[in-house]
């Protein structure tokens, strides 16, 4: 292994890395030309050819090979995961550049807590340009022979990943809209009536009293402990959400304690910064402070004492709908404009002001963290917020319950948070293209340390369809975080609502049978720093055709996934880099196996089948726990 650490300036300690290496100065920088201007640092990798590929960046839109687009690592609450996006909820600053024409391949980690821009041949197709508007950064360059080994060296550098309890690999049902105990019991009953196994039900923000963290809406959930116990007796666990921001409300203990102890981020005058999120006006815990993490993390006890064994952390980019200040400005300007004869210009100013209230990046310049007694403006360390919220719970729960395992995942993240929890892929849509996006994010996230991850199956936003859910579940059975989740107002997508009940029952039963196999794969991938989902370009480095496959993955060494992700398809084309067995599986007892030679094939796959490929039949038995 060869990792070179280069330090420029005096970087902020992000705590992404666990291995402490001696730092070299910038004269040891290789592969990149470095331009230093008053705007910051620009790293250029030149003479990019058609064959050059770029991998990594974790949670982002577009393909496994990231070349050709411009990305930014800037944790953002953005529910439109379309191709135009540059950043989603996570900031994962690790890339691999594979340049076969010059026999160069290396990994590089830009260890920086603010935004990094990756212009990967977008502006100029012969150049990759990475820029940071700062002059303080640590850079790690990893030189190794194989792509897979670059990843394992990097994973060694950043430390082992969070692993869920084995039961966390079960099937979970979620929906933003379950309001009360009766709604939850109805879901349980309908799954039971349909004979579809269910392992978890997620509680979204409505279980809280007016969206206040660590409170219960007692009217809706009069006895959460009993509900949790009753469900657990049936093998079903409740997984509540925790939001990042704390409601401003006199008499609310979390708010009052936070104010008293100075635990919230502050505005320029040192007063708690106020932004609006679901609870209304809210304050933002300063998760960068160890004592704040300890304080907030220990609050999870409130739910753990009621029998809860898993959580999902939301809104921790942090999402801000509006700030008090800006809302005031916008309203004042509106009043001003209302006195004029509103022309087009004023009209667009008005609509623009309102359209940019929610999630305006300006808010990140309006509040401060306290780092070792010094104020640090939020935007400078923006990508550490979500990570440290995850860490707060991860560390405090471990301290309180050292011998217990919890299911735990978050929305926002950066490299480092992978040690404390998993992530889900956020607010995707019920679109066919998002099945493919789900597949493509898996290896990219694995490269950045995230093993426990998955997307909202069936799609979060927009109305789903039965065939979409069938195809998505057929991929989901192979993915660790296996959760059906949707947004209120969209078509309901619990599996019992569709006609294909027996197919869903078969698919979920296949998954249940696979849990020990999957868990072992997760565990060993973590132990050895391997990816659980491997692009064909990594698994078959010397195969020119495999290098460009964007819709198939190896799951471990023995299974190749090739899900159907297009509407009304009766099957799909698959590229086999070697002779393989094609498996078309209807249920744990009913599957068809046939040999296919290396090359491209059209493989049929009906809506009630799951297809995958193996080298030997023995793998199927192991996968289903029959061997
Ligand atoms: O602003 O809690 O990504 O999974 O259902 C939306 C409500 C807030 C966003 C999460 C989504 C969740 C929703 N939340």
Description:
The structure is a single chain. This protein is an alpha/beta fold and 627 residues long. Among the domains are: 156 residues, Sandwich (Immunoglobulin-like), CATH 2.60.40; 247 residues, Glycosidases (TIM Barrel), CATH 3.20.20.80; 30 residues, no CATH class. Helix content is 26%, strand content 24%. It has 14 helices and 36 strands. A 9-stranded parallel beta sheet has the order 26-25-23-19-15-14-13-28-27. It has a 6-stranded mixed beta sheet with strand order 2-1-12-9-8-5. It has a 6-stranded antiparallel beta sheet with strand order 29-30-31-36-33-34. Helix 3 links the parallel strand 14 and strand 15. Helix 7 runs antiparallel to helix 8. The longest helix is centred in the last third of the chain and has 28 residues. The model has no long low-confidence stretch (mean pLDDT 97). It binds ligand MIG. The site of ligand MIG has 9 residues, from loops.
